[in-house]
Amino acid sequence: xLQLVESGGDLVxxxxxxxLSCAASGFTLDNYAIGWFRQAPGKEREGVSCxxxxxxxxxxxxxxxxxxxxxxxxxxxxxxxxxxxxxxEDTAVYYCAARxxxxxxLNQAFWGSASWGQGTQxxxxx
Length: 126
Fold this sequence. Notes:
Elements: E1 3-7, E2 11-12, E3 18-25, E4 33-39, E5 46-51, E6 58-60, E7 68-73, E8 78-83, E9 92-99, E10 115-116, E11 120-124
């Protein structure tokens, strides 16, 4: 059974860093595009970053570009989201999703048929 588990969320001060992990089980991530999304209280879910399978390019939302980095370690069957220079507005539940396609998009409709994890809470506050 295909399963995704996010981890690494925590309470961090503004300007701090966190590294989120999205670990897959029941399938190998090699042939899957992976997306990171977040949802803050009272707001709609938004795409943060995604990475295609193989050597496909990475995409970032404008709000995180230059601060967040997505990467994948196929040997560990895990995708990471390194988050630096965190801001209070980054506070949200972060989710990862997987779809068996080569390219990726931050468009929500693109991930309609994807598998999703349960989320991990990131809180940026002093």
